[in-house]
Write a structure and sequence with these properties.
seven-stranded mixed β-sheet; 725 residues; PglZ domain-containing protein; elongated; Alkaline_phosphatase_core_sf; five-stranded mixed β-sheet; alpha/beta; 26 helices
């Protein structure tokens, strides 16, 4: 039987297995001779052929009558008009492509264009809508997307799927255009890359326009891109420190790194350290007040050297150390505030479990905390106890401070020598590995050869001795080096056959002076210069003297009182000094010790809120928080949807110490009024407390089910008698 295709459009290519018919003569000559396939072209000829076949009762030989591609595509596009400017050739190409897919051709073609099949065939939902809005389709194929959108006309999300402006809808959902879309809830996916710059610019402008107040109004858990907003807020608040308050700080700190949290902690200068402060108070002053301000002043504010406020604050600490250091040397090593107590701590831990003791040369307190943030990222390691500050052994140079750290003796001991290896031998256990022998450390960990493994690394300290540009050193090279040390520590843990049994202790010998320093132009001839210290005594008022007998040293040592230095390994282009240490500035003296493990199961934190008050009047909410964990809870923020003042989160100034139960009141600006239909005078409270474990790991807990507020009001109907007076 013959197969005939009628093509009145004359647009389609004739397949090679068809005999073309373009005139009546060709039709008469060919028709009926064979059972070949025939392709008839031309509107008039097709009408003639169809009439001829009808007359001979042969219409069943017509296999297909080709329609104009515009008609075919118009039928497929339904209510979406086909652009008039599309040529017949373009329409034919598009139709051929669509015809190559047996089912759902538009979705198939969009999947091919975008390289993403899942979006175009998935069922409609909030998550699907979010993914589709973020999918960028080339403008020339946008009409196909409009056709695809028609299939969702009867879905509950049809209003959003039928949008003519995807980008506008996406901006509104992200909260960077108005009106916002509360019905869809929080955008469930990361901010699309192509909108990140616009998102950041929007929030930066909003923060500046509101002078930071917008942070008080947002609920972080319900805001899109809170991590990005926090980083932008950190940048803005650094430039406008007078906009910082506890509420704003608490909103953003859970989303910042440890170093960034500290930067916002105190950007206004503290009072000088009182000379009669206890060691605990001095350590708190350095870590909580001086160092955050010092870092902001040096890194962000960058005043001239002679205008640094923090240098004058540091001088009060120098006076305190000169007065109190001799007294601290009397305490037993194990209970000492001095850094050599770390070795005793390590020995005690070794009685319970194997220990990897990482001694990072030159790691000050702030750098210590930043290293912890890298170590605890993505729950790689967890803090077993809160990081503790210690006073370095004086002077704060490696040959003295590190020797004492290992030997648990002061440098005045007859055994003192500028050899850390000999000092470590006094530990009486384990083995010490330097950077050159780190491969041996890996092998020892794999074989479980010791109870104590010590990695003594000077890569961080060497960084300060080799760099010549302070800003790039601090903002680029320093964090890169800390991250590299963290990766090696994690690698060490992975080598141990049972990594969950291994404790990791992080410690150091001394810190580094922040910023650039001047070089002292003339060194007194009676001194032997060694950076910020010199061997010998001098009456030069630019120095303070550590007498060997009083400060337990092998010889008298003179220390530069200011931030200046006698010399250094490296200098900037303008001949200023970088990375000198050995003096008495707080960042040189105060170092940290912390203990971590592979994983620690955090116990559930309990919080209960109960109170009684009169409606429409201020009240107090009694809060009880029980922290059964070995680290404190910090950065507390309480969310209670039933209380307007707590709806967007209220920051709590309290820190909850490890293994303690704390009770405290907080003010309710106005006790709410119960609705007329409420059967009791109790309002049940729900909500959430968010916090950080020791400023590092995020955590949260829900309010206990017995949390409630007893409300006293005259009429259960909701009317107040004052309205009738």
């Amino acid at each position: 039987m013959m197969n005939i295709v009628l093509d009145p459009t004359e647009l389609y290519d004739i397949p090679p297995d068809y005999i073309p018919i373009t005139t009546e003569v060709e039709w008469i000559k060919s028709f009926g001779v064979t059972n070949s396939r025939y392709w008839v072209r031309g509107k008039r000829l097709c009408e003639w052929a169809e009439a001829w076949l009808r007359a001979w009762n042969k219409t069943d030989a017509i296999m297909e009558i080709k329609l104009h591609p515009r008609r075919c595509i118009a039928a497929l596009f339904d209510t979406i008009p086909v652009p008039d400017e599309w040529t017949d050739a373009q329409l034919l190409i598009l139709l051929a492509k669509l015809d190559s897919y047996p089912q759902n051709p538009v979705a198939h073609l969009l999947a091919e264009i975008t390289g993403d099949e899942q979006i175009w065939f998935a069922q409609p939902a909030i998550s699907h809508l979010a993914a589709w809005l973020a999918m960028q389709v080339p403008q020339e194929y946008r009409i196909l997307e409009l056709v695809w959108q028609q299939q969702f006309q009867k879905h509950e999300l049809a209003t959003y799927y039928q949008t003519d402006d995807k980008l506008s809808l996406l901006r509104r959902w992200l909260g960077i255009a108005t009106p916002v879309i509360p019905d869809l809830g929080k955008y469930p996916l990361p901010i699309p890359d192509f909108l990140c710059t616009e998102f950041d610019a929007y929030w930066e402008e909003l923060l500046y326009n509101t002078e930071g107040k917008i942070l008080e109004d947002i609920i972080p858990t319900q805001v899109v891109g809170m991590e990005r907003i926090a980083k932008i807020a950190h940048k803005v608040l650094q430039n406008r420190p007078h906009w910082i308050n506890k509420v704003r700080e608490t909103k953003v700190t859970p989303y910042l790194g440890q170093q960034q949290q500290l930067e916002l902690g105190n950007l206004s200068p503290p009072q000088s350290l009182p000379i009669d402060a206890s060691p605990t108070e001095a350590l708190e002053w350095v870590t909580q007040k001086y160092l955050p301000f010092r870092r902001w002043e040096i890194i962000v504010n960058q005043p001239a050297l002679d205008q640094r406020i923090s240098d004058r604050l540091a001088d009060s600490f120098v006076n305190w150390m000169l007065e109190h250091y001799p007294q601290m040397t009397v305490d037993s090593v194990e209970n000492s505030y001095l850094n050599y107590s770390v070795a005793a701590k390590v020995q005690n831990l070794c009685r319970e479990s194997p220990v990897l003791w990482v001694v990072v040369d030159g790691l000050g307190w702030l750098d210590h905390l930043e290293l912890l943030s890298y170590l605890t990222q993505n729950h790689q390691l967890a803090l077993e106890t809160d990081p503790q500050p210690r006073f370095s052994i004086l002077p704060t140079k490696t040959e003295y401070a590190k020797w004492s750290l290992y030997a648990q003796l002061l440098p005045s001991d007859a055994a003192w020598a500028a050899d850390a290896g000999k000092a470590f031998a006094k530990m009486g256990m384990g083995k010490r590995y330097t950077d050159r022998r780190i491969d041996q450390l890996y092998n020892a960990l794999r074989k479980k050869t010791h109870k104590l493994y010590c990695w003594d690394t000077d890569t961080f300290d060497n960084l300060y001795h080799s760099q010549t540009d302070w800003q790039s050193l601090y903002t680029l090279d320093r964090p890169h080096t800390l991250e590299g040390i963290a990766k090696k520590i994690n690698y060490c843990v992975q080598q141990y056959p049972k990594p969950e049994e291994l404790r990791i202790v992080i410690a150091s010998d001394h810190g580094q002076v922040m910023g650039t320093q001047d070089k002292i132009s003339h060194c007194p001839p009676e001194l032997e210069p060694k950076g910020r210290m010199a061997i010998g005594k001098t009456d030069d008022p630019r120095f303070v003297v550590l007498e060997c007998d009083r400060y337990h040293l092998p010889h008298d040592i003179s220390i530069v009182r200011s931030a200046a230095s006698l010399g250094a390994f490296s200098y900037t282009n303008n001949k200023q000094i970088i990375g000198s240490h050995g003096g008495l500035f707080p960042e040189e003296v105060v170092v940290g010790v912390s203990v971590l493990r592979k994983s620690i199961q955090r116990a559930k934190v309990y919080i209960s809120c109960r109170s009684e008050g009169k409606s429409r009047q201020p009240g107090e909410l009694e809060i009880t928080i029980d922290n059964p964990n070995s680290v404190p809870l910090t950065n507390l923020c309480l969310y209670i949807p039933e209380l307007p003042a707590f709806n967007s989160g209220k920051s709590l100034e309290q820190q909850i110490p490890a293994n303690q139960r704390i009770h405290f009141p907080i003010t309710i600006p106005e006790v709410p009024e119960l609705p007329p239909s409420h059967e009791r005078n109790y309002l049940s409270l729900s909500g959430e407390l968010t916090f950080r474990f020791a400023n590092l790991e995020p955590g949260s807990t829900t309010l206990a089910s017995d949390s409630q507020l007893k409300i006293n009001q005259l009429f259960s109907s909701g009317f107040n008698i004052d309205e009738f007076l």
